[in-house]
Structure formats: structure tokens, C-alpha cells
Specification:
Number of helices: 13
Strand order of the largest sheet: 2-8-7-6-5-3-4
Strand content: 5-15%
Order of helices and strands: HHEHHEHEHEHEHEEEHHHEEHEEEH
Number of domains: 2
Length: 391
Amino acid sequence: MPEISSTLRNLTGGGSDGWEVFARARQMIASGTPVTELTIGEHDIRTDPSILAAMDASARGGHTGYAMVPGIEALRRKVAERIEAATGVPTQFDNVLITPGGQAALFAAHLAVCRQGSKALFIDPYYATYPGTLRGVGGVATPVQAHPEHGFQPRAADIDAQADGAASLLINSPNNPTGVVYTRKTLEGIADVCKKRDLWLISDEVYETQIWEGEHISPRALEGMDERTLVVGSMSKSHAMTGSRCGWIVGPKDVIAHLTNLATHTTYGVAGFVQDAALFALNEGAELEARIAAPFERRRAITLEKLKAQNTVRMIPADGAMYVMLDIRATGLSGEEFANRLLDERHIAVMPGESFGRAAAGHIRVAMTIEDTAYGAALETLCGFAASLCD
């Protein structure tokens, strides 16, 4: 039998993808063992009925054939309007490509700017698919560590030190897995390195509507960055439309034109009725987005309150997104050891920090994705378990 390509065989670098705890939790649930899941970033409320009604009306109205490959113009204009309002950078519909979700956008954006064999930089800790995405486009996936002692804010000097031979840098703010929102100082340092080293910046901004403290700053807004920045966005987190697979890339018009050509040869666009639903959702404005984000803001407050009552577990400042990163190094365990024991002994599933890179070793990621009371109880149990390991 012929072999499959080395690109696919090496997508995860030939090792673990770090998600064994999640897989074990799902196996336990399938066997009938109750498990409290605090693992993946899936809303505990589903897509708003009004959005589903718009999707249904569009489909029943006949928008089920091939849609325009770069996206329907009305949706592209709405995304352009949204990005222009956020950045102050003039943005037209032909600066926008609609994609089948944020993940497809990340892959396409890197394929547009990464040369075969060139370094593709990304910040560690990172969303789990980042390294495989970069390897998949032929880049050399190269992590740049952001350290807990700096609040997981990446430092320009560390990026610059890895930049020889690099074509691109991928950042994510608000950040998954840490919940950290990059400060203006951090982003200006990143921008300076990108300009100095002639790097493309790919900015994953899918959590832009989940800001609890501070402000979301898109690096496209910074001086001299709009010409070298590709912004990735999505309806998944902002509008609880994870399964609908509707995202976008915003960037220079010539890049978007090439990416449209790529889409013609790969995805051939996004279903028209999904795009119509996304347009409806965006037109509903900030009130709907705030309502979808509100549970995570409440649970962040619950997290802060529960952690006040103990001194074993420490929270990395989480100013955005639907996650908190907890430092459990006082227990003497790695994140992976702690998560496995927590699952086995307390039937609570969290993600080890090591699943997201070396920088988060000794930490765990908690997804704030279950009902408030159950979430608070799970945190109390988690903290009590951590304290018992220190006795």
C-alpha cells in the first residue's frame, strides 16, 4: 500500500497532541461514569433561536446552492464595517474573505504568507492546533515562550531572538488557553519586531467580544501594521455558532484576492444560509454578543471568589476569553499529573497546561463552560483536592 504524505504523518510533530485527559474523560462518560467536564471551549448554551430562525428561513428560501466563493457581499461588507470600527483602518468588502470557521482561516492565512521551510513563529502557550496548522502549510513551527512570571505577556526581545529565517508570527489575544489580554505595550513591541524583521503578523481574534478587564486592541490598528497583518475572526465564540463554521480573514486586498483563488480550489466557499444567519447575527449588534459573553464573565467572578478562600491554587490574570489558567505548582505535580489524578479521584476533567506548550507546565486550563452553581462546586472540589496534596 502506498504511504500517505509525510506532511500528514508529521502534523503533530510525531508525538502526542496533549489531549489524552480529554479523551479519557469522554471514555469514562461513555462507560457511565459521571464526569464534570471543564475541558473544551464549547458554550453551555446553544446558538440563539433567532439566529437559527434566520438560517432556516434562508435555507427554505432557496439559499442552498453554491454561494459566492469569497462570501456574500453583504456579509463581507458587514465584517469590513466591524473591523474598521474596531481598528480605525479603512476597510472595504474586498479586504474580507469568508471562511469555513476560524481554523480554516488560520490555515489559509499561513499558506498565503509562509514559504516552504521557513520558520512560522507562534506564542507558547498556544491553542492546540497551531503547530499542526503551521506544519501543514510547510512551515517550521517555532514556539516563542511567554512566561508565567510576566503574566504570559510575550516579550518583543524573545520574539526577535527567534526571528532569523521567519516569515510569520501568529498571536492570539484574548488568549486561549490563558485568558490573558495583550496590553498595548505588548502589542507595540510585537509590531516593532514584525516591522524590523519584515514578518507577516497573523492575529487570531476569535475571542474579541469576551473582554472582562482592559481593552481588545487589534494590531491592525497600530502604525504601519495594516499592510502586514491578517486578522482571523469567527462567529463561533462571539455568537455561539461553533458548529456553523463561519469565519473570516481580513487583510490587504491583493492577499485576499489570492486567498479567494485558494478557496476556489479547496473549500469553494461557505453555505449561503449559514452566511445569511451570520449576517443576521452581526446585525443584532452588541446586545446579543454581550448576552452570549455574560456567563463567562460571571464565572470568572466566581473563580476569583472561590480562590480567595485558599492559598494553594493561583489564577493567572484572566482578562478575557472563556478560560482561566490555574497555577498548581505548589502541589509539586505537573499539570498533566494533576489533571489525571483530579479526573481519577474527583471525576473532574480539566486540560493540563502542557497540552498547550512548555510555557504552561505546572498549570491547568479550566473552561468556564458549565452552569454557574455546578462550576462553583467543581472549583471548590478542585481547590480542596490541590490543598490535600500539600498536607
